[in-house]
C-alpha cells in the first residue's frame, strides 16, 4: 500500500518523507488556501522533495480551460499528477492528459459508476472521498470495496486512491480491501503509531528499569 500525504504543508511532508513514509502527495484548492502559499511555488517545493506523484488540482470548470491549467501545472515537474474533478468536463480533460502521457488523479468521486468512467477515461488514480460519504451517513469504505471488485472484474489499471481519510480505522479498513493508495493528513498517519497498551507497557518497563539502577549508555 502506498502512502500519499494530503497536505501542502512542506514541513509536515518533510518530517514524514525523512522517515520514508511518503510515496506521494495530494493537494487541493482548500489545502493550498490553508498553506497560505502560492500554488506554483509550493507545488514546486514539494515536487523537489518527494520523488513520487504530487497531485495539483485544476480549478477551471470547462474542459478546454482545465486542459490549459493542467498543462501549466504539469510543467512544474515531471512527477505532477494533474488533478481534475469527476465531472464530464473533468473526464474530457483526463482523457486528453492521459493520451499525452500525463498522470491524472480524478477527484471528488462518490460512486462506483463515477469510478468506472474515470478508469475508461484513462485516469492514473481515482480518488473516492470516504470521509465525506460517512459524513452524510453513507458508507465510504463500502465504496472502496465496490470499486476494488469492479476494477478487478475488468482488469482496469487505474489505482484506487482512498481519500478524505479521517481516522486510523479508515486506513486499516481500506488496506484490508486492497486500496492501492491512501492519502491522509499527516496527523492521521502519525496517529497510526498510537496504542494505549503500548503506552501502558512502556510506562511499566520504564518503572521496572528505574528500579534496576542500570544504564545502557
Ligand atoms: O484528499 C481529499 C481530502 O483533502 C478531502 O478531505 O477531510 O476535507 O473531506 P476532507
UniProtKB/TrEMBL annotation:
Subcellular location field: Cytoplasm
Matches recorded under Pfam families: TAL_FSA
Gene Ontology molecular-function annotations: aldehyde-lyase activity; transaldolase activity
A biological-process GO annotation: carbohydrate metabolic process
Keyword Transferase in record: yes
Active site (record annotation): 83
Name of the protein: Probable transaldolase
EC category: transferase
Predominant cellular place of this UniProt entry's protein: cytoplasm
Pathway entry: Carbohydrate degradation; pentose phosphate pathway; D-glyceraldehyde 3-phosphate and beta-D-fructose 6-phosphate from D-ribose 5-phosphate and D-xylulose 5-phosphate (non-oxidative stage): step 2/3
EC number: 2.2.1.2
Domain of life (superkingdom): Bacteria
Organism: Rhodobacter capsulatus (strain ATCC BAA-309 / NBRC 16581 / SB1003)
Classification via InterPro entries: Aldolase_TIM, TAL/FSA, Transaldolase_3B, Transaldolase_3B/F6P_aldolase, Transaldolase_AS, TSA/FSA_arc/bac
